[in-house]
Specification:
single chain, mainly alpha, 15 helices
C-alpha cells in the first residue's frame, strides 16, 4: 500500500513542485474540494502523529509523571529548530538518522548474538490470525510508512524537484522498509509474537533478554533519536501544507506568512506547535496513532485519484498502482478501530462545515 501511494506522490510532485503535497495536487487535478479534504486530512492526521512522536520520546527518556511536560518541551524545542530554516532542519535530521541507524544496528546484533534466537518463533502463534486483524494492524501501522510525504510537501525548497523528488520518494520508502524488516525479524527470532505483544518497548526487551543487556541505554538513545527525527520532519511537512492551504483561503490567511529572513512559514509552525502541545497534554498515544492513520489514509485516496488523471507523458508508473492504492486505503480505513473511525469522521465533518462557511462568507471565491 505504501508503495502504491509513494508512486502517486512521486509522480505528482514531479509535475507540481510546490509546497503543500496532495493538497496542491488534489486542487489541480480534481478540484478545490478534493484538495481541501486531502489537506485537512493531512494536517489533522499528521498533527496527531506529531503528538504520538513527542509522547514516544518522553516514554523512553523520562519517568511517567514527567512524560507529558517532557513531550511539550521537545515540541517547542524542535519548532525552534524548524523556525530557523530548512537547512538547519535538514542538518539535524542527518545527525538523528545516523544515531538511529547505529543504535538499531547495535540493538539487532545484541538481540540475536546475546539472546536465544529460534526460527520457530517466526511463525509461532499465527494459526489464529485473521485477515481482519492483519488489515487493522496494517491500517494502524500505516503512518510509519508515509514519511516520504514530507519530501513532496517541501517541493518549493528542493533543488531540481522534478528530478530529485521522484527519485527520493521510492528510495526513502525502500530504505525504511529494509530497516523495518531487519528489526522485525530479529525481534521475532528472539521474542516471538507473544513476547512482542507483552511489552510496549520490544526492541529494549529483546536486548534485555540476552547477555548483552548492558546495551539497553543505547536502545533508549536510538528510540529517542528516532522519535525526534520523525517529529522534526513532521513539523516541517505539516507547516508547509498549512501554508499552502492558507494561501488559498482554506485556512486563515495570516498563516500564509513566510519569515523574511529564515524563509519558513513561521506562523504556521507556531500554530502547529500550539495544537500539538494541546494534544500531548490530553490524548492517549494509541488513540493519536489510530486517528493519524485515518486522516493519512484518506489523504492518499485523493493522491491516488489525482495521479490516476495524469496524462501519459507525465506518468512514470502504471495506473493500476493508483487503482490499487485508492481501493486499498479505503479498505484499511474501514478496518481501523471504530473509535478512530468515528473520531476521524467527526473531524472531517468539522472541516467540511468550516470550508462551507468560509465559502459562504466569500461568495466570489471559486468552490
Amino acid at each position: 500500500m505504501a508503495y502504491c501511494n509513494a508512486t502517486a506522490s512521486a509522480q505528482l510532485a514531479a509535475e507540481y513542485p510546490e509546497s503543500g503535497g496532495t493538497y496542491v495536487y488534489g486542487r489541480a487535478r480534481l478540484g478545490p474540494w478534493w484538495g481541501f479534504l486531502a489537506g485537512w486530512g493531512f494536517v489533522v492526521g499528521k498533527t496527531a502523529s506529531c503528538a504520538a512522536m513527542a509522547l514516544t520520546f518522553a516514554a523512553y527518556t523520562v519517568p511517567t509523571p514527567w512524560q507529558r511536560p517532557a513531550a511539550v518541551a521537545v515540541v517547542l524545542g524542535l519548532t525552534a529548530v524548524n523556525y530557523r530554516g530548512i537547512t538547519r532542519t535538514a542538518g539535524l535530521t542527518r545527525v538523528l538518522v545516523a544515531v538511529v541507524l547505529v543504535a538499531l544496528g547495535i540493538a539487532v546484533v545484541a538481540s540475536v548474538a546475546g539472546g536465544d534466537p529460534d526460527p520457530a518463533r517466526l511463525t509461532a502463534g499465527t494459526d489464529g490470525t485473521s485477515a481482519y486483524g492483519v488489515l487493522q494492524a496494517a491500517g494502524l501501522l500505516f503512518f510509519a510508512f508515509a514519511g516520504y510525504a514530507r519530501i513532496a510537501t517541501l517541493g518549493e525548497e528542493v533543488r531540481d524537484p522534478e528530478r530529485t523528488i521522484p527519485r527520493a520518494i521510492p528510495l526513502a520508502l525502500g530504505l525504511a522498509v529494509a530497516v523495518y524488516a531487519v528489526v522485525a525479524v530479529s525481534l521475532l527470532l528472539v521474542l516471538g509474537p507473544a513476547g512482542i505483544a507483552a511489552t510496549t518497548a520490544p526492541v529494549m526487551a529483546a536486548v534485555e533478554s540476552g547477555t548483552w543487556s548492558g546495551l539497553v541505554p543505547v536502545v533508549r538513545i536510538g528510540a529517542a533519536a528516532a522519535s525526534l527525527g520523525a517529529l522534526l520532519a513532521l513539523i516541517a511537512g505539516v507547516s508547509r501544507t498549512v501554508l499552502a492551504m492558507a494561501r488559498e483561503d482554506d485556512l486563515p490567511r495570516w498563516l500564509s506568512a513566510v519569515h523574511p529572513r529564515f524563509r519558513v512559514p513561521h506562523r504556521a509552525e507556531l500554530a502547529l506547535a500550539g495544537a500539538v502541545c494541546l494534544l500531548v497534554l490530553t490524548v492517549d498515544l494509541r488513540g493519536a496513532i489510530g486517528f493519524s492513520s485515518f486522516g493519512v489514509l484518506l489523504y492518499y485516496v485523493v493522491a491516488n485519484l489525482a495521479a490516476f488523471t495524469q496524462a501519459a507523458d507525465r506518468r512514470r508508473w502504471p495506473r493500476a498502482l493508483q487503482v490499487g492504492g485508492a481501493v486499498g486505503c479505503l479498505v484499511l480505513v474501514a478496518t481501523l478501530p471504530w473509535t478512530a473511525v468515528i473520531a476521524g469522521a467527526a473531524v472531517f465533518a468539522v472541516g467540511v462545515v468550516y470550508r462551507a462557511v468560509r465559502l459562504r462568507l466569500r461568495p466570489s471565491r471559486p468552490a
